[in-house]
Amino acid sequence: MTSQITLKRPDDWHLHLRDGNMLHAVLPSTATHFARAIIMPNLVPPVVTSADAAGYRDRILSALPEGSTFEPLMTLYLTEQTDPDDVAAAHASGLIKAVKLYPAGATTNSSSGVSHFDSVRPTLERMAEIGLPLCVHGEVTDSDIDIFDREAVFIDRVLDPIRRTTPGLRVVMEHITTSNAVEYARSQDDTLGATITTHHLVINRNHILAGGIKPHYYCLPVAKREEHRLALRDAATSGEARFFLGTDSAPHTDANKLLPCGCAGCFTAPNTMSILAQAFEEDGALDKLEGFTSLNGPAFYGLPVNEETITLTKGDPVTYPSHVETPDGPVTVFDPGFDLNWRVE
Ligand code: DOR
Ligand code: ZN
Known about the structure:
Strands 2-3-4-5-6-7-8-9 form an eight-stranded parallel β-sheet. A three-stranded antiparallel β-sheet has the order 1-10-13, with helices on one face. A two-stranded antiparallel sheet has the order 11-12. Helix 3 (about 85-90) packs parallel to helix 4 (about 120-130). The longest helix has 16 residues, at about 150-165. By secondary structure, it is an alpha/beta fold. It is built from twelve helices and 13 strands. The site of (4S)-2,6-dioxohexahydropyrimidine-4-carboxylic acid has 12 residues, from loops. (4S)-2,6-dioxohexahydropyrimidine-4-carboxylic acid binds near residues 16, 108, 137, 220 and 248.
């Protein structure tokens, strides 16, 4: 029985760090285990220009714990006013590693996102030319589309047309939640990658709704039926290079999660690696964990694999804080609902 596993240090290819007090409170959780992370730009106001991204990067670096070598990989928030030249300059200087597409209204702070996809065509074409990836929140926002169908409909109505009309554009389908997305990713060439979150590997929609509503399991895209969770587990543990970890760790204070109209997001940064080790072990795929957390993402982004390693050891159940304190109130840490036996050394 394997009781210890050493991996190249993981990266998180989709992370919300927020700003100000929240940034200071949550950044150490990620910086402890991860070498790098793709930083989501959905601040208020959003990170839309290269100047915004440079300022945000500085604030992240100055919030890092003493001695940390964590590297934030910055992104720009795509709007209908985005200037392709500004994007290209930010990429050429090394400041940004991706551009984020939020359909307007799809999720937290997405009101500045895109409604008319034709209006961002010049930026997408420039990104295809320069090899800059587009990270996509893949849900339509039409009120007549059932929320559980919004990812599948997005693939047909938006994603596939973008891929056909912008050949060569590197695209990351982010936080995929359905077997439809897994199948679509598998049908495409290596210009398409897909991230999978930790929480979507362990919860389905029953966990949110059966036996009482669990606001801390509510995120977007919302978790789907069990058959979809199993398709995600199959993809994550397959070893296929197109699938890699993007936690979408998305902290909100408990006060904001527990409102009558609560915020979407699961805060998984503190215990993600323990949960993943548990899940991969359960599926007999511990040998595929390193590919998912540490190798496939860098390969997609054309970045070197981290030289450092982390070691996880299996033993008595691991305890971790139930929440992280912030000056604005506590943020509850995601509870996978089962004991965790893998500890990050
Ligand atoms: O659950 C989510 N939370 N999904 C998103 O797309 C955004 C994120 C957030 O920023 O809170
Ligand atoms: Zn996100």
